[in-house]
Amino acid sequence: MSDRISEKFTQKRLTDSKEADADEDVEETRYELKTEKCGILHVYVQGNIQNLTLTTPLFLTIHDIGSNHTEFHRLVEHPCMAKLKARSVWVHVELPGQEFEAPDLSDSYSFPSMQEIGEDLVHVLNFFNIKYCVVMGEGAGANIAARFVMSFPDRALGAILINFHASVAGIMQYFNEKMMSWKLNAVGMNTTAEQYLIFHKFGNQMESRSDKDKAVTEYVKNLEKRMNAKNLRLYVEAYLNRNDICQQLKEKMKVDTMLVVGTRSSHVSAVEETQSHMDPKITTMVRIDDCGDVFADAPDTFAYDMLLFCQGLGLFSALPMSRHGSICS
């Protein structure tokens, strides 16, 4: 069982980095939970979880390597998500040591496997007395989310998986991630690691992004100044050492699932391969055109597709949707 080991608090976070000119009030509450295999997990809640009912849409999110829960926080705060945010509760899981300005994890700490993290997520639901949720993950977080669903299918209404790789790392991915992990361990954050994580996050054809300098600069600034390279390496290694779950998907992924990938993403082939192993009756593939990073490049399109998917689950039924873009109006 999970235990709260510190009181919740509403926190303030700097907008971009420690050098930001002003603080930003953050509408989220942080909890620290003790779990079986992950140890202490930081969990951030957006919305009124105290008044949660069986009809309140609740989303459980898990972030990718090279990021943390703030990726999902920014998504929820986007204007196109306002109508969804007002009617839902979001529970963001931050994996051990991945928060900004995190201290080094202890040398004695054994970073959990992808499977162990997935299984530990049920403790988050139990702690908040959540009966079931829509689970959402990106990249490595999508792999963890799928493992959670397969382990506890009765606790998930549906799954939204962005850039989901179900297979083991390919030869080139293994080599690149192994080299990145070695360098993170040997020299800390470095150019090789940064370039790989940029490609992992933003995808192909970065030169065609009109705002690429701003997007990459902000991302690199967080990597260099706010992410703990030693801790990040542990998450990368866990993802690199994942086992193949492709053959389990059709039998064990028993909930409606939306796979999401941008057409400029570096993950297109892997997501399409994953789709081929899933039950087509309950799997929806969403390809977002001219997009690398779904959250940064096309939040309005993602919000629209997410709403349609959730309405198919019986959620947000009172929220009208007549055409693409009307969610932002």
TrEMBL record:
Region named Disordered: 1-25
Superkingdom classification of source: Eukaryota
Entry-linked Pfam families: Ndr
Compositionally biased spans, kind Basic and acidic residues: 1-20
Family note: Belongs to the NDRG family.
Name used for this protein in its record: Uncharacterized protein
